[in-house]
UniProtKB/TrEMBL annotation:
<keyword id="KW-0243">Dynein</keyword>
<keyword id="KW-0963">Cytoplasm</keyword>
<feature type="domain" description="Dynein heavy chain AAA 5 extension">
    <location>
        <begin position="407"/>
        <end position="451"/>
    </location>
</feature>
<keyword id="KW-0966">Cell projection</keyword>
<dbReference type="Pfam" id="PF12780">
    <property type="entry name" value="AAA_8"/>
</dbReference>
<keyword id="KW-0175">Coiled coil</keyword>
<dbReference type="GO" id="GO:0007018">
    <property type="term" value="P:microtubule-based movement"/>
</dbReference>
<dbReference type="InterPro" id="IPR011704">
    <property type="entry name" value="ATPase_dyneun-rel_AAA"/>
</dbReference>
<dbReference type="GO" id="GO:0045505">
    <property type="term" value="F:dynein intermediate chain binding"/>
</dbReference>
<dbReference type="InterPro" id="IPR035699">
    <property type="entry name" value="AAA_6"/>
</dbReference>
<dbReference type="GO" id="GO:0051959">
    <property type="term" value="F:dynein light intermediate chain binding"/>
</dbReference>
<keyword id="KW-0547">Nucleotide-binding</keyword>
<keyword id="KW-0505">Motor protein</keyword>
<comment type="similarity">
    <text>Belongs to the dynein heavy chain family.</text>
</comment>
<dbReference type="InterPro" id="IPR041466">
    <property type="entry name" value="Dynein_AAA5_ext"/>
</dbReference>
<feature type="domain" description="Dynein heavy chain hydrolytic ATP-binding dynein motor region">
    <location>
        <begin position="1"/>
        <end position="68"/>
    </location>
</feature>
<dbReference type="Pfam" id="PF12775">
    <property type="entry name" value="AAA_7"/>
</dbReference>
Amino acid sequence: MRDMNVARLTFKDVPLFEGIMQDIFPNVEVPTLDYEMLEGAISAEMRLVGLQPVKGALHKVIQTYETKCDFTTNPVSSFDNGLPFDFDSGTALDSNPAFVFDFDMGDLQNSRHSSILLGDTNTAKTVSWKILAATLSRLHKQKLPGFENVQLYPMNPKALTLGELYGEYNLATGEWKDGVLSSIMRNTCQDESPDQKWIIFDGPVDAVWIENLNSVMDDNKLLTLVNSERIAMPAQVSLLLETLDLAVASPATVSRNGMVYSDYKDLGWWPFVNSWLDTIKELDYREMLRRNFLTILTPILELKRLQLTEGHGVKGQELTGVRSMCRLLTPLPAPGPPASDQDDIEGFVKMRFMFAVIQVLCPASQEIEFYPSSLRSIWQSSLRSSIIVYHFTPANVSRVLSITSPATLDETSRRKFDNWVREHEGIFPLKDTVYDYYVDERLRQFRPWEDQLPEHWRYNPASGFHMILVPTAEFLRVQLIAIEMLKCGHSVLVGGPTGTGKTCLIQGTLASLDMTQYSTQVINMSAQTTSENVQDIIEARLEKRTKGNYVPAGGKKMIAFLDDINMPARDEYGSQPPLELLRLWYDHGYWFDRQKQWRKNVKPRVQGMVLAGVAGSPGGARSPLPARLLSCFHAFYLTTPTQTQLNNIFGTMLNQHLQEFDEETKTVGETILMQIAKKRLKGLLRSNKDYQNTRPRFLRLWVHECFRVFYDRLTEDKDRDWFVAHVGDMLGKHFDLTFHALCPSKTPPLFGHFLNPFEVYEDILDMAALRKYIVNQLDEYNGSPGVVKMDLVLFKDAIEHICRIVRVISQQRGNVLCVGIGGSGRQSLTRLASYICEYNSFQVVVTKTYGVKEFREDLKGLYTSCGVDAKKTTFIFSDTQIVEQSFTEIINNLLSSGEITNLYKPDEFEDVKQGLEKPMKAANVMQTNEAVNLFLIERVRAHLHIVLCFSPIGDEFRNRIRQYPALINSTTTDWFLEWPREALLEVAYKFLEGVELLASITGEPIKKEPNREDILRGSTASIMSLIHSSVGRYCVKMWQELRRTNYVTPTNYLELVSGYKEMLQNKRAEVALQANKLRNGLGKVEETTLLVATMSAELEVAKEQVAEYTEQCVQYMGVINAQQRNADEQQRNVAARSKKTMEEEVQCKKLADAAMKDLASAMPALEEAVQALDALNKKDITEVKSYAKPPQKVEMVLEAVLILLGHEPTWAEAKRQLADQYFLDKLRDFDKDNISDKTLKKIATYTSKADFDPEIVGTVSLAAKSLCLWVRAIEKYGKVYKSVKSS
């Protein structure tokens, strides 16, 4: 009972369980198994890998062994009291009844092919199974019976999808794709060697993937796949799960597994510290550190646990901080001998130790609120990407960042810790706080961080604003440690709220490294990032060395920078697959090929890959980092900068910029530092001493930048009114001015560079000139070839939006987020603004088949245009073009890092490389693949400006902003709000131009009163604007009362105006048509009246004629009756004759049928004769013709032929006819139907002769025979035809 339950209990519950057992079984001494040999082997293995074989660790390894392995192999064991015990009988060998107990070890064995190691991070769960496996393998090598070698197959099931884990069918092709687990199970189960195979599931347990293993965990030990394949698990294969908790596991899963719970209190942090101290070779230095751990670290950790508060997002386990502190102390060598008697080595070691404690376990933090909570997020966003790093020369310090110090404590905790340290340790100077000092290794004393800063630093105005790097002391507290950790192969994580410079800190740290030894890979995480995305991005920078082994390209050490590492969305059960993939790599040094299911070993840490991450504070789309992943990092925490820090950062740059201005303007600059932010500073640095060299002008610029940075982000009138009032209060408080005095037009000033011939950023006071310029630019744009013409109404708001967009995209890496409902002019005004800046405009064209592949192809062309051809381009992208969510992921990467992974194929990349050869030579950059890629990205970011046109309607916009932080952090927001009344009137006037409101439907000119039509047009426009505005107000009221949303967009207003014009035109056409119909009807009525009068007169005349014709008809009727009688008589006679004729016709038909029968009888002979003629050829005719004196029979035949042809029957004539080439054709075409009786009689004189027979004639000449046949046939046909014709 004890062995089955103690392993599952926490540290606090073990004494309670033992007390209960003692109460149930009083006076019973509970025996314990003697594992002396096993414990010795475990201790040896732990020492071999530098671990401490403490009692708690040994117990957990043995409990894992008891839960995992087979005990029936050693039926006889002994207890700690030295008495042997027989497992078969369940009795001690001395028959002491106090040691008799009864249980079936076989049942215990059957349940142990699946076990779970459960517990918090840093509780040695991984160590337990690794040491156990190594111990069993060691005992097997020592030839001890009952022990086998152990093969390990670790994997993280949450780093893969369910299909990639178990296998799935390809829905498109129907092919089966194997899974990682199914492949491992198949291979291990088919291996018949006696080695133990442990399949390790090192990751979170959920109710999906684990439930598919229930049939493997129970007595069936059978894995059934989707393709109906069944894999039986033999005895040498077993499962082991290592997880943080079982919060979502089902009871069925829990009941099928053996369980071992690891509690941090069983171990604590001392075993790790002792292992680390063992690595220090100098014994004196080791003992000094050990005393410091005992006397300093122990009370500090207790103080931190009870009284101090850590920052959100990087709250780690206690041991994680201790490990980070040891990492920080590791590179420091043991102190050398003292230079003088006054040197205190013990004190110097304590300085180092306290510095490590302060910087790692209890670093500083502050949280200050500058503005009301409604504007706090805007303030934080304006600080993001603040001026960050700076290069200077002191050793080990290459860049400094304008952020707050690393922090895991809030301000109250900071003060408590500072007071506690000063009360217990007197080694710090009295000035400032303990956070403001570092240890000078040469002087062996604390020195302020300010000493590390360069003197008289100046920024380069010619460099891009994103490249301006400001030195601050606060950055040194992070960067020095981060650089050292990365060089030593330890991963670094920076957490903190938005706007504190986390990303810039890491970027500056990476930029300070030697690029010949290090390469970087930026991975911008978002809510849609998957583990496969992360794996593909990293593998794009790896190269294969041997089978399954990958290293960073170029032999460098690669640092994978994971921006917004806690952004990936959690699944239904709370895990984040991309982060689980990273932890799999960090713990085991590999991940799996998703297509071929084998390991891909990625060389980790010192000589391979190391991670650097940035995590925002949890909330919104961001989640707290898993504790197990957080333990892999050396963590820092940053908070919002203080006002003093902001003054140092921005004042350094602004004061340098204002050096050439007059003293009054310099005073203004010093005052406004209190209210400055990064994006406002960018505008102030565009000031020119020739244009803003007076106090009012410079203040107008400051007001303009305030409105652009803050005011443009506000959407509600009450917030905007508050902001205007607040600006007025600040002007009155610091400058004794009012907003209306500074801006007499009661509107904020407007600045731009495009009206100035020298492109100076100046105050635009002449709005008429500004409107005229933009109208001219619009006309030029519409006249450009290949563009779609835009018919825009440039009212005041539209002009201001154009100026805002131009202001942003004219700056380096300036991107805009235009937020407004459809029809508000976002895309049209962006095109015009891009044209004003002389940029190309680019938009994708979405079709029904448009997908990620087509989108990447379009972006490939965009990259080539901007990066290779160096064409400045504005990429306009609308939310209506987001066909797939991966589009937003790509846009997020474009905004944050400018990189799209695997955009070019190898051959295409070679073309890019060739195109960038000259620019890279000019920039003195070596053409390696990595350098080309980075150079291309920099050129793209320098020439590409992204303008996003999104609609705030619905949840999509809010979700995208939360899930893809770069959409806000890397853009300047411009809200396209509801059109004001003036804009509505101006649009209506524009659309009503050319409409004749007083036109006549008859086309006749009407007398127009002066200005009457203009008054009518103004009234119409006013009514339209009133209708639109009132509908908008009632939509708001409907939302407030009914919580139902209805949107009235500018498109609706344009449809109202155009609909009015169309309806007016249609109604006019309809009325004109009705009027024309009426006019035509009246004309027809008049015409009909005239016709009726004429017809009445004609009717009287017709009546007289009718009477006369009636009398004549009576007379004619008598004549007609007489004629009718004669006609009837004639009809009877005709009928009699017709009857007789029909009888004669019957007789004639009979005769005709007989004649036709006779004629048909003659046709065969005729056809035979014709065939005979066809058989003749030229040679036969020549033979007959060659006779000088022909035979009598031949001559007789030819005479008959000549008679039929109507020629003289002589031999001379016969020869002439035979010489005719058409002779035979004449015979074939002979007119046999018109042979005269005379000719028939002459022919009869020949045919009646006895020798005029074809057979007889044929004995003389074959040609004569054919002619004889023809003559006889013609004669017969002629006679028959004559007979038929006569009948």
